[in-house]
Amino acid sequence: MNIKNIIFDFGKVIVNIDWERVSKELKARGVKNVDELHDYLVEENFYFDLETGEISPQTFRDAIRMFIGDHTPDHEIDAAWNSMILDIPEQRVKLLEKLKNKYRTFLLSNTNQIHFQHYNTYFASHYGYENLADIFEEAYFSHEMRLRKPDPEIYRVVLEKHGLKAGETLFIDDMVENIRSAGELGIVGHHLKEGQDIIDLFDKDLVYTGITD
User: Fold this and answer.
1) Residue 71 is part of which domain span?
2) pTM above 0.70, yes or no
3) Short-list 213, 204, 127, CA closest to 170
4) pLDDT band with cut points at 50, 70 and 90 for residue 107
5) 74 and 177 share one domain
6) Which of 28, 52, 82 is the last residue of a domain?
7) Do residue 12 and residue 26 come from a single domain?
8) Backbone angles phi, psi at 159, to 5 degrees
9) Exposed (0-12), middle (13-18) or buried (19+): which is 172, by Cβ within 10 Å?
10) Within this chain, do residues 71 and 173 fall inside the same structural domain, yes or no?
11) What is the CATH number of the domain that holds 34?
12) Residues 144 and 44 sit within 8 Å (Cβ to Cβ)
């Protein structure tokens, strides 16, 4: 296997995520219909539209406020929404720094403007980088691209823009459907399962040793 390029997912691959914390935070703020709120945001495509930049963060916040029927200020909604974002472990950052010297590395994340601002602030304060993108050759975010994994087009954009050969490109993601769609273009995929860590996928010479799916 001749891997020359690596594309990383972000959530649960580089940053630790706990989705349940959003519900807990909302309940702590007195929101009683949290499950119904989640179903509403799914059914009306608010999550999807926020991640593809089709709606603004303000529209998303207003939808939540309208559903729960109160006057929760923006910063409290953002705090609850961002509570799912935990830490970016130092050992992963150090690995990414080393990998950048051996491979062409990229980030490809389904995310939104609210989370984007939050983890960039975290990354700058903890690791001294101006923003998360600085640790890669280039970083791609769904809300800026107006595309979202698992749409194969999102991978094609990255490959074509940088002249990457699919068979020389490793894609690491925690979602099987994203790995499969990337595989349709010939990209080598690694499904990062629960309990796996990217630091375990490379040997001391930074050669990829993981098993592909």
Assistant:
1) 20-82
2) yes
3) 213
4) very high
5) no
6) 82
7) no
8) -60, -50
9) buried
10) no
11) 1.10.150.240
12) no
